[in-house]
Amino acid sequence: MHCLILTLVMKTYRLSLLLIIFAFAFASSALATPSSLFVPARYSDEVAVIETSVNQVITQIPVGVGAYPIRITMTLDRLKAFVSDNLTASISVLDTVALTNIATIPVQRRPGTSAITPNGTQLWVVHQVGLEGHTSHSPVEVIDTATNLIITTVLIPGQGAKDILFTLDGRFAYIANNTLGEVDVIDTTTYQVTSIPTAEGSRRLAISPAGDRVYVTNNHGTPGSVSVIDTATQQVITTIPVGAAPFDVGVTPNNNEVYVTNQGDMTVSVIDTTTLTVIATIPTGILSQQLVITPDGTKVFVANGFSDTVSVINTATHTVIATIHVVHKPWTIGLSPDNMKLYVCGGHDTRISVIDVASLTVSATIVNVGSGPWDLGFGP
Question: What is the widest separation between alpha-carbon atoms in the chain?
Answer without folding.
Answer: 94
